[in-house]
Specification:
By secondary structure, the protein is an alpha/beta fold. The chain contains 10 helices and 11 strands. The protein is 35% helix and 26% strand. Helix 6 links the parallel strand 8 and strand 9. The site of zinc ion has 7 residues, from loops.
Length: 292
């Protein structure tokens, strides 16, 4: 009964960190009841799903990000495509902390591959006791994350109404997904760090070329400008790698990104027939702190 075990592991993790949660309906504190649900002081309750996550959405959110996209992202992550990025993030976190346990939130965690790997790398480096929270509006992704790592804290929630207590986190990660800067300001401790990963002009350029998708030139600099408007930029680190993907990974590279949603079938087939594909990861890591 893997799933029953998942729910209990998740409930125990949530009970240990219940102070991180805040009712999204009335903003009172929450506790775990009977290893089954999170309940607030006014009685609003949210069940812990058998996979090991809590859904805080009042109604299901429409999302084009389905199970197959998250499965493909997970396959790409397991292939090592994102490993240098995850390592860079883990190293930056480790560089900014002593040996004390930290609280880490991944806003827009998807299927949880980044958060899981980053925490693994931190643990290997001797950093134990980190509380990792993954939050995303797409239930399919969070469900997959929880199924694999029930001892972490996974929430399906609207970024704008996150069920988390203010000034709780030492680090907030925002990896290749939209930001909600107001929530980052609210959730981050005053001396905490926001780590945001933005795409560079060359990111996945081989897919863009194949799909004839226009390069959103300057999109990176616009994203950095928005970051600077909201946080004090203390570091900007570019990262560019190129990986050779075997034929069996190419369909997952295609399916992991919305870039393929408007591509014509012919160009998708042409890519799928290749015996290998060199694919570029081109991103910039921005580290910021609250303005004082
Ligand atoms: Zn409540």
């Amino acid at each position: 009964m893997l799933n029953k075990r998942n729910r209990i592991l998740a409930a125990e993790a949530m009970a240990n960190h219940s102070h991180l949660f805040l009712c999204p309906l009335c903003s009172t504190s929450m506790r775990v009841e009977e290893l089954r649900q999170l309940i607030c002081r006014k009685g609003h309750s949210f069940d812990i799903a058998k996979q090991g996550y809590v859904n805080f959405l009042p109604r299901p959110a429409a999302s084009k990000y389905g199970q197959s996209l998250f499965r493909s992202r997970s396959m790409m992550s397991e292939s090592g495509f994102f490993e240098s990025l995850d390592r860079l993030i883990a190293c930056q976190i480790l560089a900014h902390i002593g040996n004390q346990p930290v609280r880490l939130l991944d806003m827009g965690c998807g299927e949880g591959s980044h958060l899981t790997r980053i925490l693994d790398m931190m643990q290997t480096a001797g950093c134990h006791g980190t509380a990792g929270v993954g939050l995303d509006i797409a239930k399919e992704g969070v469900r997959m994350a929880a199924s694999r790592q029930p001892h972490l804290l996974w929430c399906v929630a609207d970024l704008a109404r996150s069920p988390l207590a203010g000034r709780s986190f030492d680090f907030i990660l925002n990896i290749l997904s939209p930001s909600n800067y107001a929530q980052c300001q609210r959730l981050l401790k005053d001396d905490g760090f926001l780590i945001k990963i933005i795409p560079g002009d060359g990111h996945l350029q081989e897919l863009r070329t194949a799909f004839r998708t226009a390069n959103r030139s300057n999109s990176g600099s616009k994203l950095e400008e928005r970051f600077r408007d909201n946080f004090k930029l203390i570091q900007s680190l570019p990262l560019r790698t190129r990986s050779k993907l075997d034929a069996d990974l190419i369909p997952h590279a295609i399916a992991m990104t919305p870039l393929s949603w408007h591509a014509d079938i012919g160009s998708i087939h042409s890519l799928q027939e290749l015996s290998f594909l060199d694919l570029t990861l081109d991103v910039t890591l921005l580290i910021g702190q609250k303005h004082r």
